[in-house]
């Protein structure tokens, strides 16, 4: 899974061939997460940690606990050989011993783009309830000196807060304030896998040396900063989605990886600290709901904590998303109405527009010699042929800003970076160290033919700055991971999309904006522009915090429901939102319920609510055995003899996996949060091969919090079956509210 920001990709490539410590017998050790049935602790032990230690000592006298988990799961992390892990699994009270996983890390304009400007400011409180909400961000840490984390105008820290500010390398407890009220770091698991952290290279503390965590935290909840910009680009007033809420950071990602034992420890502490929202722009492919992020999120949900996660950056491949658990809000990425155009000018008189973020010394006011450098990998360019020229490079899986570094080191004056055949037309703005314009595949193919066939090719680059009110927008980002959901096809994922392309947010002071290291990029900026579902996730985290401040009684499921059922999937002219990858209308497998619309979500009319018991019943219906359910839920639970189908989970969307002709019946229950009234259903379907009927067609509500159920029957007409995906929606309206649920029909 790639992280789209060129900056962060440079620092967070997960190493697959890991070196490991070795036990004295020569067997290879690895980190394991051990799940314990806490309720089975023998009475001879005064505390569960003593029992855990005794269980571990029964298989290894030398093994040490890395972490003990009390909230996210019941259990501990330790280093064991495979044989010791197998032996531990046989001990009383041990439910599971799972090897640790490695995870990857997956703004001035967006508040206005989302309608959070002055005319709608009254929808959300500026003080009081809003400032009592805490967002916990699990990432690479924080740059506390950023103006985005100023506590000017903030009152006392909420009395319910239990967190702390943990000192470490280049970080003292005094760096926290009434805005940044908590900061912790978790490196024990990482150091067991990768060796001791080189503190001359990265800070063993909550300090963010790489920028990603500062960027995501400020996107979610950064304070208002006037005059924010990146080297003159995207100038304006920067603000997080929920700029009055508090922030607590949990540094769980380091230079080479984010390991699951550290992530789980961070989630464990965030729950204990009493955060209200948990934001994780981290992910990895999973085949079940027993991954550490999924299990930690379940525990958070159980305590009323809303968990938002990035869908991943493996689009446009289908079934590529991560963080698909139904108790997680899974966020895809979209573009906004702002671009940074750069124009490629060729010697044959043709011009091609791409994107550019360079604001250094301009190129000479003339056409320059133009050469082809292929992929511009390190060691491949001849300075004698490149010096003083524009170089064309082709995008591949390597770091984009590194190609510019290679060209500059060889004496090149500028670079044209073109998409290859598999990259399509999506181009992202990067903080290059020399003038660069990135272009899509079509323009790239034409430019390449010119530079390879013209006897005297010349070119130049014109950088045009910032352009707003770009249309159409939003569009689904090509890199945004997509459904169908491979774990449970009858649960539609992603849930929705939010801004994730070319997002301006706060940045670390320890690293240049290109992420190429201190010697290659000596620039320092307060704000940087990045792209990825890592950027879209904190948008939703911040919006969830706003909804929580207005509706403190709402559950995480209620907040997600409000965001989903009020999302939009058409432009103002009624035409469907487009997918950058295809240039065609996007579908619920790309955009979920649609693009988030926070001002509408404040008053959704109806919500689809869920309890912990509902999710456990869903696991039972999904044929999870009691051991797996105990691992996820951390308690004893017996599945009912008769379970509802997994598809009957009270989710605000419908995914129908058709396996043949016949009928498929789904049941949903809505809760009235909008006052007395009657809601009438409207069914939209793009195929006649599946008939959709809803019973009853009208829901009458007399009071707030009243619940009503309805059923949806999907009848497959076998003679008309298209054997391809089809889509639609089910909408309830009382004339004031439209409560919309997407429908996705796939064929097996």
Automatic annotation (TrEMBL):
Keywords: Glycoprotein, Hydrolase, Protease, Secreted, Serine protease, Signal, Zymogen. Residues 31-106 form the Inhibitor I9 domain. Coiled coil: none annotated. SUPFAM superfamilies: Subtilisin-like. Residues 374-446 form the PA domain. It comes from Brassica oleracea var. oleracea. Residues 1-23 form the signal peptide. It holds the Pfam family PA. Residues 648-745 form the Subtilisin-like protease fibronectin type-III domain. PANTHER family: PROPROTEIN CONVERTASE SUBTILISIN/KEXIN (PTHR10795). Residues 131-572 form the Peptidase S8/S53 domain. PROSITE patterns: SUBTILASE (PS51892), SUBTILASE_SER (PS00138). GO terms for cellular component: extracellular region. The keyword Secreted applies. Residues 197-216 are annotated as: Disordered. The active site is at residues 139, 212, 534. GO terms for biological process: proteolysis; system development. This is Subtilisin-like protease. Its main location: secreted. Residues 197-212 have a biased composition (Basic and acidic residues). Belongs to the peptidase S8 family. CDD domains: PA_subtilisin_like, Peptidases_S8_3. It is found in: Secreted. GO terms for molecular function: serine-type endopeptidase activity.
């Amino acid at each position: 899974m790639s992280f789209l920001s060129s900056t962060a990709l440079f620092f967070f490539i997960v190493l697959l061939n890991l070196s490991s410590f070795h036990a004295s017998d020569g067997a290879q050790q690895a980190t394991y997460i051990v799940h314990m049935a806490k309720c089975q602790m023998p009475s001879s032990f005064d505390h569960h940690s003593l029992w855990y230690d005794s269980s571990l000592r029964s298989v290894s006298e030398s093994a040490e606990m890395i972490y003990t988990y009390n909230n996210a799961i019941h259990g501990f992390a330790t280093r064991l050989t495979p044989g010791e892990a197998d032996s531990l699994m046989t001990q009383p009270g041990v439910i599971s011993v799972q090897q640790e996983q490695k995870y990857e890390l997956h703004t001035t304009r967006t508040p206005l783009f989302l309608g959070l400007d002055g005319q709608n400011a009254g929808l959300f409180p500026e003080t009081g309830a809003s400032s009592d909400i805490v967002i916990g961000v699990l990432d690479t840490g924080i740059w506390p000196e950023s103006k985005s984390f100023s506590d000017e105008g903030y009152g006392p820290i909420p009395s319910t807060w239990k967190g702390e500010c943990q000192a470490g390398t280049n970080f003292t407890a005094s760096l926290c304030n009434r805005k940044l009220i908590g900061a912790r770091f978790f490196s024990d698991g990482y150091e067991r896998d990768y060796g001791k952290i080189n503190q001359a290279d990265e800070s063993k503390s909550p300090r963010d040396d790489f920028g990603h965590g500062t960027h995501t935290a400020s996107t979610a909840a950064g304070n208002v900063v006037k005059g924010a910009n990146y080297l003159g680009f995207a100038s304006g007033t920067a603000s997080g989605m929920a700029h009055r809420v508090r922030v607590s950071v949990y540094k769980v990602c380091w230079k080479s990886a984010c390991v699951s034992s550290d992530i789980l420890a961070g989630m464990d502490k965030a729950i204990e600290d009493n955060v209200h929202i948990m934001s994780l722009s981290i992910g990895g492919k999973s085949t079940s709901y027993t991954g550490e992020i999924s299990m930690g999120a379940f525990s958070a949900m159980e305590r009323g904590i809303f968990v938002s996660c990035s869908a991943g950056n493996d689009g446009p491949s289908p079934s590529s998303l991560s963080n698909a658990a139904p108790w997680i809000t899974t966020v895809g990425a979209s573009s906004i109405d702002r671009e940074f155009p750069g124009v490629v000018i060729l010697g044959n008189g043709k011009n091609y527009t791409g994107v550019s973020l360079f604001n250094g010394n301009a190129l000479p006011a003339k056409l320059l010699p133009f050469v082809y450098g292929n992929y511009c990998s390190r060691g491949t360019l001849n300075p004698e042929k490149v010096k003083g020229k524009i170089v064309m490079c082709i995008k591949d899986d390597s770091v984009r800003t590194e190609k510019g570094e290679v060209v500059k080191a060889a004496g090149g004056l500028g670079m044209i970076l073109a998409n290859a055949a598999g990259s399509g037309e999506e181009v992202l703005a990067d903080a290059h160290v020399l003038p660069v314009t990135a272009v899509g595949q079509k323009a790239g193919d034409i430019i390449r033919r010119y530079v390879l066939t013209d006897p005297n090719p010349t070119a130049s680059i014109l950088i045009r700055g910032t352009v707003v009110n770009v249309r159409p927008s939003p569009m689904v980002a090509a890199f945004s991971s997509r459904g169908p959901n491979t774990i449970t096809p009858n649960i539609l994922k992603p849930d929705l999309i939010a801004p994730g392309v070319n997002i301006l947010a706060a940045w670390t002071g320890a690293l240049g904006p290109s992420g190429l290291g201190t010697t290659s990029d000596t620039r320092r900026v307060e704000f940087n522009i990045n792209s990825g579902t890592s950027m879209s996730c904190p948008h939703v985290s911040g919006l969830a915090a706003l909804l929580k401040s207005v509706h403190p009684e709402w559950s995480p499921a209620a907040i997600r429901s409000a965001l989903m059922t009020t999302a939009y999937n058409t432009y103002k002219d009624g035409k469907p939102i487009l997918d950058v990858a295809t240039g065609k209308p996007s579908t619920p497998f790309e955009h979920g319920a649609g693009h988030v619309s926070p001002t509408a979500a404040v008053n959704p009319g109806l919500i689809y609510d869920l309890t912990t018991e509902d999710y456990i019943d869903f696991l039972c219906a999904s044929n999870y055995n009691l051991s797996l359910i105990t691992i996820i839920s951390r308690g004893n639970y017996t599945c009912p003899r008769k379970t509802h189908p997994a598809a009957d989970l009270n989710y605000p969307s419908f995914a129908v996996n058709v396996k043949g002709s016949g009928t498929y019946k789904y049941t949903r229950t809505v809760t009235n949060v909008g006052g007395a009234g009657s809601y009438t259903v409207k069914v939209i379907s793009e195929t006649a091969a599946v008939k959709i009927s809803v019973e009853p067609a009208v829901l009458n509500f007399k009071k707030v919090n009243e619940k009503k159920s309805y059923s949806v029957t999907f009848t497959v007409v076998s003679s008309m079956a298209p054997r391809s995906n089809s889509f639609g929606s089910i909408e309830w309206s009382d004339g004031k509210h439209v409560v919309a649920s997407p429908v996705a029909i796939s064929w097996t």
